[in-house]
Amino acid sequence: MIIGIDDTDSNEGMCTTYLGALLLEELQVYGAIETLPLLIRLNPTIPYKTRGNAAVALRLKTDCPEKVIAHVVSRIEEFARMECEKTNPGVVFIPEKAYGKLKPILRNFLEKAVKDVIEIEEAKSLISESKVPSKGFKNGRGLIGALAACGAMLNLEDWDHTFEYLAYRKKEKWGTPREIEKESFFEADRKTYPDTWDTVDLKNRLIVCVPHSADPVLFGIRGKSPAIVTKAASLIMAEPVERFAIYRTNQGTDMHLLSAESLAEIRDMHSYRLEGTVSAVPRTIHGGHVIFPVQDKEGNGIDCAAFEPTKNFRLLIRKLRPGDRIVVSGSVNSGTLNIEKIEIKKLAPLYREENPICPTCGKHMKSSGKTQGFRCKKCGTQAASKVLCEVKRNLTAGLYEVPPCARRHLAKPLVREQRYDIEINPAR
Which GO terms describe its biological process (predicted)? Predict the structure, then answer.
């Protein structure tokens, strides 16, 4: 069977991946785990999510499904943060006999859960029609992610993936400051980048892979294979680990992005890759956020933002000027696109007025007085007015990204792109 679980954590603590790691060990009493567990990030713009909007799935070969179901439900009841208003767990059990029928249905459901907005009733109706075992707690919103994670497990060949090594703290340490040797994270990055990423932010001298909340995660290493994330984890010095798990995941894949042919299509709570032209000089607003408008060929527009957490990325955005042709990727909320990546396709030429140059000696002429034109003092050459000269811009066309400290889970880092010109964090 495939087991999908979602929404057991809260803003204050717990983590659905911890429950997945625990079950990964415990369920082997009832059968054999058939493949790596899955960590599936869903639509990042959903307002009622807890933290990272992640669901997990396990695939188990077992002869005693009833015992498995009872064990999983009991563990959810024990660990889920039911006291939190936003925590509404859900678990789904897909029996092997239903794999063929549900594979295409849940493939579409997965796609929608990552890119679109799904109501709870849609998930409950699908479960009812499919007659698969499930349990929703409180309002049952977690059934959405549980089904999506099952869809990912049934369709492994259809989606891009990366891996994450998640190390978990001993329970008595939960909620206390994490004890880590910071330099070991930079050493792990030096020895495994570019096959791992987002371990540290070199430009801002920050450790990115260690959470700050009270959840059980000690650190998480992201990379291209189980072997490389294991190698990186082995180089890290920190407090004793209770357990770890390696998840196959859709993190770092841009799976959430929709292509927008026109800005008129743009909707809140969705993520896009869109092309347009900068229509005004970027402005810095209260809080250090940098905002600028983009227009398409039809004149439709949208504001794009590099928010303060993007740090040095804002320096790049401030250099944009009206007429620059760009492609931006990011999520839309309140009518503003939060930039994750930007491709500067073509820079608009900028001009400034200068005194004309003498064609004889090559020096700039001097003004002869108001409305009297210009004259070269050395050669006597004259000109009627100033001339326009193109300004060299301190910006290069290419593909840029926010630094790792501001990267969203689903955003594909440039190190994974088929091509990139300049990586903001940092030159290596």
Answer: tRNA wobble cytosine modification
Q: Cα(369)–Cα(383) distance, rounded to whole angstroms? A: 12
Pairing of strands 54-62, 2-6: antiparallel
Q: Mind listing the pLDDT tens digit for each residue in 73-109?
A: 999 999 998 888 889 999 999 999 999 999 999 999 9
Do 30 and 64 touch, CB atoms closer than 8 A?
A: yes
Cα 293 from Cα 313, distance rounded (Å): 17
For CA atoms 302, 303, 309, 314, give the dihedral sign.
positive
User: What pairs with residue 375 in β-bridges?
Assistant: 366, 382
Domain boundary among 222, 249, 276: 249
In a domain, 198, yes or no: yes
Q: What percent of the chain has a predicted confidence (pLDDT) above 90?
A: 87
Specify the pTM. Answer: 0.91
CATH for 196: 3.90.600.20
pLDDT digits (tens, 9 = 90+) for 202-235: 999 999 999 988 899 999 999 999 999 999 999 9
Are 179 and 227 found together in one domain? yes
